[in-house]
Amino acid sequence: MILAYRCLRKTKKKDWWDGLSWMIWAILGGLLLPLILTLFVLLLFKGHLGLGTFTDNGEFGLYAASFLASAMYLVVNDSRSFPSRSALSWIISISAILSSVMYVVMTLLRTLGQSESNGGNISSLVIEIVKGVDFGFVRGFSVFMLVGACVLSYLVVVIDNYQMDLQKSSKDEFKSLEAGFDALGSDTKQGAE
Q1: Fewer CB in 10 Å around end: N or C, the chain?
Q2: Which domain holds residue 66?
Q3: Please, which pLDDT band fits residue 46 given cuts at 50, 70 and 90?
């Protein structure tokens, strides 16, 4: 993690702005657009909705997992050496698993609880579990996971932007040195003639 921190300290404003641009597009297109469209359609049919419609099953945990997946790709991409790759891979993996499991468990509990109330044959244990779930905690935890995933993904994108700039400047320096070396060789040949 120290390497990632050092890398973040060396970044330029451009890396942060490019990361912010990515984050805005990801939030607008990947997060808010589906929520706004769903909200619009549900408001047409139901009239009034609460925040729980979008958060009680841990849906934001699902969004968090998608942000973490994109960050994981950048961290483990073999074409570049990413600072603190192992530590970041573990943090991202554990966070993605927690977010995904929370969503799966909450969706299953809600679905099984609803099927029982509709005459299904689900055990009374599942019904008791559903009744005992603190949906306020689930809502808060899923929002926390989403915010954490967005921040972590943003930082990973900033580091990746910095590394891309480093690779580009290294290639440019190499080409400049190569051109200088070639020019030196051609000057030597002309002097010998």
Answers
A1: C
A2: 14-163
A3: confident
- Radius of gyration, CA atoms only, the chain: 25
Six-digit token string for 190 = 């002309």
Distances (CA, A) of 160 to 4, 110, 150, 157, 185: 10, 39, 15, 5, 37
pTM greater than the 0.85 cutoff:
no
Residue from 105, 80, 101 nearest 164 by CA: 80
Calpha distance 37→51 (Å, rounded): 15
Domain count, the chain: 1
Instruction: Determine, yes or no, domain membership for 24.
Output: yes
d(Cα 193, Cα 191) in Å, to the nearest integer? 5
> Is residue 177 one of the residues assigned to a domain?
no
Q: What is the mean pLDDT of the chain?
A: 76
DSSP 133: -
